[in-house]
């Protein structure tokens, strides 16, 4: 093979190496290994500018030990290598023994008197450029052959330096993008952590303070959590608060709505499948449990889960393992499970639609999120929070809310809970023309309720009802002076619970939620007030 063919063969091999996208040091070492093999180069080094030390340092080399590479550092203009980087001009030295500027900083060459066989060593150093900027140099040395060969080697090394420069440029751009992505990811995690801090969950009522205290305790643990509460109370918000305040916050939080898919699709969604597992499975699919590895999976509407899937979920909770659909291989999982439902799971167990063993596996820590009607003192703060959000989003300035409108919002039962209140405020902001929050901005359902409370129909307002009861008690219980308060409150509470039980079909859990009290509290009151009630 003549010289031209040899050079083309070398350039083709090095081009392929540079296109592999490996780490820069590995790319250079492989490229220089080709030169060493084909051109008998003894030593070669890639020297790059280091901004942290304001020096040139040896980033990669062949024919040099680790200690020799550590010694290969140069100030700008120092020695042959420093001069090449400072001037941008290559240097070709036929015999370094005759060149006093050659420092032999690495100590790898025997060039002084009495060292080695004393044969001439030629040295080539060419600059490496990133655009117009010189970022380093490539140097190589070999036994001197003749001037023509040395010149040809220098030309070849200059071409290779150009390719290395392009590779450095690409690697720098990739590194910048990688650093930006990491910074953006960290900023996103910080924002999420800030957004879902416990003190950002709106609520200072006793019921919400109990919820927040429980969240704070459970977040730092690995326990499975079951969130109970009506639709719209904020179960997903609580799940996010638990995740982003745990040691899993840098991993994924993945939400799955168990009621949105058929059992077959949901199984594939949760556990994944392999190609050919069923019609339409044209490739392997990673399930949500795999995607959430090391993080948290939030299973919403867990009460609607198919019985067969309940068995598989129970295995995940017990054994921390599962199989993809159509696969025989068992996969291990490290995922925290947070489940949520608006159903009475104990009632579902009695109906035979929910497994008791799964219920107890999920019920490690249970958080009952109260309905909005049980925490009415939080409504003004929630209104202010949503006003701030939607005023900003819609460039509005709805601020002034009258006492009458606020009272209507405080009295309304909010069957859709916080979600309904949020929608109500957003609607008002969008429709507003100024700063005044007037009654006509409220949804029709709330305006009709307000009319009933004011007595526009035949219904008596709660305030008027209380006045009538108090007046009746004063007129008819004068003989019970000293016990009037006890007797009236006792009887009102007793009748309220009796009628609430009747209204909710005798189901105590539903009745407790309806009244906005804990089920244990309801059981105690049923016993103390001597109310006959069926066990549910």
Describe the structure.
With 536 residues, this protein is α/β, with parallel strands linked by helices. The chain folds into four domains: 173 residues, Beta-Lactamase, CATH 3.30.450; 173 residues, Rossmann fold (3-Layer(aba) Sandwich); 80 residues, Orthogonal Bundle (Helicase, Ruva Protein, domain 3); 67 residues, Orthogonal Bundle (Arc Repressor Mutant, subunit A). The chain is built from 20 helices and 17 strands. The protein has a six-stranded antiparallel sheet with strand order 3-2-1-6-5-4, with helices on both faces. Strands 8-11-14-7-15 form a five-stranded parallel sheet. Strands 9-10 form a two-stranded antiparallel sheet. Helix 6 packs parallel to helix 7. The longest helix is centred in the first third of the chain and has 49 residues. The termini are far apart. About 1% of the residues have low confidence.
Give me the secondary-structure category.
alpha/beta
Low-confidence residue ranges: 112-116
Calculate the mean pLDDT score and round it. 84
What is the total number of structural domains?
Answer: 4
Strand and helix layout:
Layout: H1 3-18, H2 24-39, E1 43-50, E2 55-62, H3 66-71, E3 73-74, H4 79-87, E4 91-93, E5 121-130, E6 133-143, H5 147-195, H6 206-219, E7 225-228, H7 235-244, E8 253-257, H8 263-271, E9 272-273, E10 285-286, H9 288-291, E11 296-300, H10 307-319, E12 321-322, E13 331-332, E14 336-341, H11 345-351, H12 356-362, E15 365-368, H13 379-394, E16 400-401, H14 403-411, H15 417-431, E17 436-437, H16 444-453, H17 462-476, H18 484-503, H19 508-515, H20 519-528
